[in-house]
């Protein structure tokens, strides 16, 4: 059985793991104050053309989201998210547990747009009784989204503009950012993210690391005391260098981008095969997640050799299922899948 | 410079790291549902003689503490702790951030006793206006304590008894548990902990793992929905098997106990050397932390070769400093330190 | 200008106010431990045929909601509500501030039904990854709803049944309960509420009191330590007797029901007048709120003499506006409004 | 039985109650937007010589405390308080429930001083690992304190100075402020409080109102969105004018000061009587609370005619008990008590 069900089914990219092994007996201080964290942060600031940004390393995505949001918002403030956003649908109420409402906006393709954000805010701020409602104060995006779709740079700029107009912070979740950056469809760069977002994170866990997410803070007011909040929320790793080491490995020699390219090339092969076969895709994604709509017997035939993720019912006794590629996906595995698709 | 400043200055014990390397390309499901987590949990249940216990793996100690306490308490309930307890003094208000007060009790040697718990509770429950105060509902111990001291089995039983009498949950933080279990002074076993505590955790981070703590839940009512809370608090590692693998390694072939023995043997050598020299110890600890009281010039001389942790002023221009041993401490390093002590 | 914009524009029903005046110099203990609170609780238990219920008096509705929900739920649990429910739309995130998500369900007439609750829960509990989502654990209803509509006893029983099936608590917000109980459309009694809900509250503020809501707890497990939570959430009134006195007045001599009848009789007159005039109503409510759909010039003409609440746009340059009646609404005021309606 | 056990055993001062009665049928908007709230706020601004201050009316003291603190602090920040402070000892963990630690400082006479605040902060900010501890960010005082003692203007200024130096907000709880203002020992005026505190509240509940506390905010940054937080914490009274009306009454014709003077005159008579009799006082208070230390048989004799509050054991089979005076205390009652004291 070959797992294409998610992008976290293996350990780490060998280059990353090797670095952990090679440095194992080094002695360093703890809690992210070591030289590897500092050097990784420098590499990321450089990759983002953001010399003044603060960079913090956290173990996981939910932890990054709840820490950033708890650090940024006052108690009466809420965060706007796609209804399919991770904080709305996959985090067990982590944001609410910090006291804040997630305000879901409709998101047909996993994305929200500047207009719907604007309308929501306009309605709120026009209301003389607005104090009886949650105040919108942050926009949460993910890039790619949970459905593998991407924001264009123009869309991102439009959202930035509406955020500025309504005094909203803009936060972008890059759990799968490597796969966005490597997509032929993408025109948003790391410097764009550092410029237009108040804060965003560069995902490691789903992009080849054992674990780890790098939070990049551009907005000056969010920098204050961020480490207190990391510690308070349980996110300050004692052997913090493990995070630094992994991001050092990912941002030296362009490994992070290489990992993305590998996964995208294979994902696009899968996409092409379904397309050639005339299979409809739930979402037209050019990132590492592909969502073909198949009949149950087709799914069963694939399921004999490949682990996939069941996604949703899609009418006519059909379902959308998800395939994910990653740094670890072997080309031969994809070739075998493509063969299977041809004879579905 | 040799670091004896803490027990988390290196990576992982080589046997643990090797296992991560050997299994790196295995494909498994995520979030702790993989076979390694299951087998590690089985090994721990066996080591605890607690076949019905639930075992969950979390990345760090503060995360384990806040998750257990948030899962266990109702909003008006507080947790009693030594004033030197980790949740009171080293977690940036992590417990309060979940809504609960930490109620510090005096703790001359880092320990609290059954009597002081009993007196506090008696006063609370006798008060007709008790509803205006935080209700004591849990006792938090650590073993060894932050000061390296140990509870005897009799002390633990007495605390259990007072907890039962006042309907308090008993939770024990075993961040450095390997060092307790290997101490000649210790008479508390893993089965004792599983029997007398409602919940406790077996520390990995400070005992040879890259990271990881195993929460062992004996009390039936605490088992319900614990995984929701782990996820909500940001503690559910995507590649959860990394935790399972490490605890598998630690609880096969008695590695966990072996790590403890190694560190304790070296710590006792350091202790003996100070003792032989007539240097007073702040705390008479037989675990992996040693707290000699030294003059500044003595500290300076040691500090040229060894990194230590400054602990507290101790009168007469003297200070207590801390040395920690671990799985990674080399016998030659300790021999060199002992030499230095002889000629202080 | 005559205010028909809400049911809290005046002080208290004269009988209630008189009781405050008459008892002003009585000396009692504080915090709800006085004889008036006890006698009011007894009267309410009797009116609910619920001799074992616990009754607590709180100052306001948002306070009652957040206190009940904080007391009832564990951290990962959420509460299902109509999207128009007060906790979802009018409480500034009060529930989230206690750590819990409000999960909105579609509610065309302000109501949710057993089927949609069932479907939501079924989907949640069927999901193998349900631990990544907020666990539904409570249903929040209001009776009448924010739109003045009512649950039938059959609907309430069906919801109770689905709550029991999925282990959900059932909580009913009776901010305007007097107006439900007096509506010709209503077949739900106080004993029905005490029997079918785990907890509900009888509204005072909008039903003739200066302020005050009586929380009635039937479910044994919710009774424990409820006063601690009231105190912790800032809801324990020092001169608690003020609440007891008002509910004593409302539940002696059937004043509460009398207040409801007065308001409903007048509301139905307004309703009839609009109906006679051929004006459409946004909602067909037989409680104290009426929502006619009018053109702007009609609204302007009424607005010269009456204060109303603008509600929502309703197409064709029309808007729905709201009129509220209460104990304080004078029949002559309604007669004048009816005259105005006739010549719109 | 005459109650001298607390200052909230009766209803409201007759002038206040009369105003509620006289205005009962007025129609106003809700939630504190009515003319009475505005006029009361103006009167308070004038009394405080603080034309730019924001004034908000809340129902009770715990509510005021938790709302101010939740509005002011970021998640990792804590509030320094006397260990006898109301937020530390009488609010069931209300502050922790908003996520913040109360940090108790020793307070022999119910007071904390600039030096101990300074020392605590210095230790925190000097610590290189300070991010692992709760950050001190606010000082909470009460005036008078829970023990009836007073801060001198010099002490208040010194505390202000240390707050400024360490970037702490200064918040003063004036639950019994009328009794401070009327004490011969007091040299702190309302304008002093508005000038030196970032925020404070003027207590109504214990000073003659049915209920109500007026929060006065001087610090510009605390003003933003305060009403959202009031609403979110359940403190926004629907018939908000009830609060406005009471404070209008209290701040017209100097009633608030008159109430204080009445109570203090009687309290000092009680104090003198004990003093004449040679009875020791636990605390040398010149406000409305008196704490004589008596033998059990003396207490029993007084207890036959007067309700008091038992306070604490005081050695030699003696206890300290508390007498409170208020607007409602009758001179004849005090004369009778004085007679009893003479023959103890």
Describe this protein's structure.
The structure is a homotetramer of 344-residue chains. Chain A is built from 15 helices and 13 strands. Chain A has helices at 14-22, 35-47, 61-72, 86-89, 94-97, 114-126, 153-165, 177-181, 190-196, 220-223, 226-232, 241-251, 255-277, 296-303, 331-342; strands spanning 2-3, 54-58, 77-82, 102-105, 135-142, 169-174, 199-203, 213-217, 289-290, 293-295, 306-307, 309-313, 318-324. The mean pLDDT of chain A is 97.
State the gist of this model:
With 344 residues, the first copy, chain A, is α/β, with parallel strands linked by helices. The first copy, chain A, contains 15 helices and 13 strands. In chain A, 42% of the residues lie in helices and 17% in strands.
For the largest interface, the chains and their residue counts are:
A-B, 55 and 55 residues
Residue share in helix of chain A: 40-55%
Helix segment count of chain A?
15
The coarse silhouette of chain A is: globular
The quaternary structure here is: homotetramer
Keywords:
344 residues; globular; 7-stranded mixed β-sheet; 4-stranded antiparallel β-sheet; homotetramer; 13 strands; alpha/beta
Write the layout of secondary structure elements.
The structure is a homotetramer of 344-residue chains.
Chain A: E1 2-3, H1 14-22, H2 35-47, E2 54-58, H3 61-72, E3 77-82, H4 86-89, H5 94-97, E4 102-105, H6 114-126, E5 135-142, H7 153-165, E6 169-174, H8 177-181, H9 190-196, E7 199-203, E8 213-217, H10 220-223, H11 226-232, H12 241-251, H13 255-277, E9 289-290, E10 293-295, H14 296-303, E11 306-307, E12 309-313, E13 318-324, H15 331-342
Parallel strand pairs in A: 1-11, 3-4, 3-5, 5-6, 6-7
Antiparallel strand pairs in A: 2-8, 7-8, 9-13, 10-13, 12-13
């Amino acid at each position: 059985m070959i797992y294409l069900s998610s992008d976290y089914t293996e350990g780490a990219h060998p280059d990353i793991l090797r670095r952990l092994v090679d440095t194992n007996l080094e002695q360093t201080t703890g809690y992210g104050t070591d030289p590897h964290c500092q050097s990784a942060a420098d590499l990321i600031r450089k990759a983002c053309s953001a010399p003044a940004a603060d960079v913090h390393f956290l173990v996981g995505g939910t932890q990054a989201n709840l820490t950033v949001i708890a650090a940024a918002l006052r108690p009466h403030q809420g965060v706007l998210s796609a209804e399919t956003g991770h904080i709305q649908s996959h985090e067990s109420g982590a944001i609410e547990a910090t006291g804040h409402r997630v305000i879901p906006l409709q998101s047909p393709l996993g994305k929200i747009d500047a207009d719907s954000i604007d309308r929501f805010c306009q309605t709120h701020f026009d209301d003389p009784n607005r104090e009886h409602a949650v105040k919108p104060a942050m926009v949460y995006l993910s890039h790619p989204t949970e459905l593998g779709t991407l924001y264009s740079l123009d869309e991102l700029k439009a959202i930035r503009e509406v955020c500025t107009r309504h005094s909203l912070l803009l936060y972008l979740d890059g759990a799968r950012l490597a796969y966005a950056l490597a997509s032929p469809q993408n025109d948003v760069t790391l410097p764009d993210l550092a410029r237009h977002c108040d804060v965003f994170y560069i995902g490691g866990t789903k992009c080849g690391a054992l674990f780890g997410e790098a939070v990049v803070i551009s907005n000056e007011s969010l920098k204050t005391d961020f480490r207190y909040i990391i510690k308070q929320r349980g996110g300050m790793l004692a052997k913090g260098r493990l995070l630094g080491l992994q991001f050092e490995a990912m941002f030296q020699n362009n490994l992070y981008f290489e990992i993305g390219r590998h996964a995208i090339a294979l994902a696009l092969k899968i996409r092409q095969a379904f397309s050639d076969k005339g299979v409809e895709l739930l979402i037209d994604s050019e990132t590492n997640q592909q969502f073909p709509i198949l009949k149950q017997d087709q799914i069963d035939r694939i399921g004999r050799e490949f682990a996939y993720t069941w996604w949703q019912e899609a009418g006519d006794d059909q379902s959308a299922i998800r395939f994910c590629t990653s740094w670890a996906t072997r080309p031969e595995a994809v070739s075998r899948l493509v063969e299977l698709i041809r004879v579905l």
